[in-house]
C-alpha cells in the first residue's frame, strides 16, 4: 500500500469514510478558522511524512468534519519553501487529500498589498499568479504529467462562487494577481516596484507551489489573500512577521464569513 493510501486509511479510521468536498489550507494567523469545523483534529505529528509547520501563526493539524453542512478537510498550517528549500514540501498533504476523495481546494494566505485600494484588513481573490521565486514544485517529477497547463489554474467557477458569497455578505472581494517570492526575508522596495511593473497586485511567500501541485493532481482550486501590510516602500508601517500575525485577524473574520456563506450555499 502506498504512503498516501496508508495515511488516507489512518484518517478515515479517525474521521469516517465520507470524502471531503473541499480541502482548505490556512495561512499565517488564520488557523482559528479550523475551530469552526465540527469534526476530528489530527496533529501532523500523527501523520508520518506530513510537514511540521515551523512558522508561528500556523496550527499543524488536519481537521476533518463538517462546516456549514459541507464535509471539509482543513490543513491548519502549511510548510513553506523557505523552511527547507523544497518547493514540493506540501505535495504529500495534497496527495492525501486526493486519496481521501477531495477534488476541490481553497487556499488562504497573508499577503502584502501593492494597491492603495487594498489596505491592511482587506481581502483579495487570486485571479492568477506569478512564480517570481524562480523554482517549481514539479522539478524532478519524472512523468509526462509534469507539463501542467496553468491557464485558469485559479478555477473560474469556484472564484465566481466566492465572489457571490462575498457580495451576499456585503464584503469587498477584489480580484488580483499574486506574486510569489521565496522569502523568508521580506521584499525590498525595488522588488516591490518590479512586481508592480510585472502586473502583481499582492506579494507573498506561499500558495503558488500548492496551486501548481493541486493542478498536477487534478484538484480544482481557488485562493484568497488576507492583506496584512502594504508592500515595502508603499507606506510608513514596519513590516515583520509579528505585524503579519497581528493584522491577519482583521481580514480573517471577513474571510470566515465568506467561506461559510460559500459552503452553506452549496457551491
**What is the CATH C level class, in words?**
Alpha Beta
Give the total of domains.
1
Given the C-alpha coordinates, what overall shape results?
globular
Uncertain regions spanning at least 5 consecutive residues: none
Q: What is the typical, i.e. mean, pLDDT?
A: 91
Corresponding CATH architecture: 3-Layer(aba) Sandwich
Strand order of the largest sheet: 5-8-7-6-9
- Strand coverage percent: 15-25%
Could you please describe the fold and organization of this structure?
The protein is of the alpha/beta class and 267 residues long. The protein has one domain (3-264): Nucleoside phosphorylase domain (Rossmann fold). The protein is 31% helix and 23% strand. Helix 1 crosses helix 3 (91-99), helix 3 (91-99) packs parallel to helix 6 (208-217) and helix 4 packs across helix 7 (241-264). The longest helix has 24 residues, at 241-264. It is globular, with a radius of gyration of 17 Å. The two termini are 34 Å apart. The model has no long low-confidence stretch (mean pLDDT 91).
Notable characteristics:
7 helices; purine-nucleoside phosphorylase activity; Nucleoside_phosphorylase_sf; Purine nucleoside phosphorylase; globular; PUNP; glycosyltransferase
Summary, kept brief:
The protein has a single domain, classed as Nucleoside phosphorylase domain (Rossmann fold). The chain is 31% helix and 23% strand.
List the helices and strands and how they pair.
Layout: H1 3-15, E1 22-25, E2 38-43, E3 61-67, E4 70-75, H2 81-84, H3 91-99, E5 104-113, E6 123-130, H4 156-169, E7 175-180, H5 189-198, E8 202-204, H6 208-217, E9 220-230, H7 241-264
Parallel strand pairs: 1-4, 1-5, 5-9, 6-7, 7-8
Antiparallel strand pairs: 2-3, 3-4, 5-8, 6-9
Helix pairs in contact: 1-3, 3-6, 4-7
Amino acid at each position: 500500500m502506498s504512503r498516501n493510501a496508508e495515511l488516507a486509511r489512518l484518517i478515515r479510521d479517525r474521521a469516517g469514510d465520507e470524502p471531503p468536498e473541499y480541502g482548505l489550507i490556512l495561512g499565517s494567523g488564520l488557523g482559528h478558522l479550523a475551530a469552526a469545523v465540527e469534526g476530528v483534529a489530527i496533529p501532523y505529528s500523527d501523520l508520518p511524512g506530513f510537514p511540521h509547520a515551523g512558522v508561528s501563526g500556523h496550527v499543524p493539524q488536519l481537521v476533518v468534519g463538517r462546516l456549514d453542512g459541507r464535509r471539509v478537510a482543513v490543513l491548519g498550517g502549511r510548510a513553506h519553501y523557505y523552511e527547507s528549500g523544497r518547493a514540493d514540501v506540501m505535495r504529500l498533504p495534497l496527495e492525501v487529500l486526493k486519496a481521501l476523495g477531495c477534488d476541490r481546494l481553497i487556499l488562504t494566505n497573508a499577503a502584502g498589498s501593492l494597491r492603495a485600494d487594498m489596505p491592511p484588513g482587506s481581502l483579495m481573490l487570486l485571479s492568477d499568479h506569478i512564480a517570481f521565486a524562480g523554482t517549481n514544485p514539479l522539478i524532478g517529477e519524472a512523468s509526462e504529467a509534469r507539463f501542467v497547463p496553468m491557464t485558469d489554474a485559479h478555477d473560474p467557477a469556484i472564484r465566481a462562487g466566492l465572489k457571490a458569497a462575498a457580495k451576499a455578505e456585503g464584503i469587498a472581494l477584489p480580484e488580483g494577481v499574486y506574486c510569489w517570492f521565496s522569502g523568508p526575508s521580506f521584499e525590498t522596495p525595488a522588488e516591490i516596484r518590479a512586481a508592480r511593473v510585472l502586473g502583481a497586485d499582492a506579494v507573498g511567500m506561499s500558495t503558488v507551489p500548492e496551486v501548481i501541485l493541486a493542478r498536477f493532481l487534478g484538484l480544482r482550486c481557488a485562493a484568497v489573500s488576507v492583506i496584512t501590510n502594504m508592500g515595502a516602500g508603499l507606506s510608513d508601517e514596519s513590516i515583520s512577521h509579528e505585524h503579519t500575525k497581528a493584522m491577519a485577524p482583521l481580514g480573517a473574520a471577513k474571510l470566515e464569513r465568506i467561506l461559510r456563506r460559500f459552503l452553506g450555499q452549496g457551491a
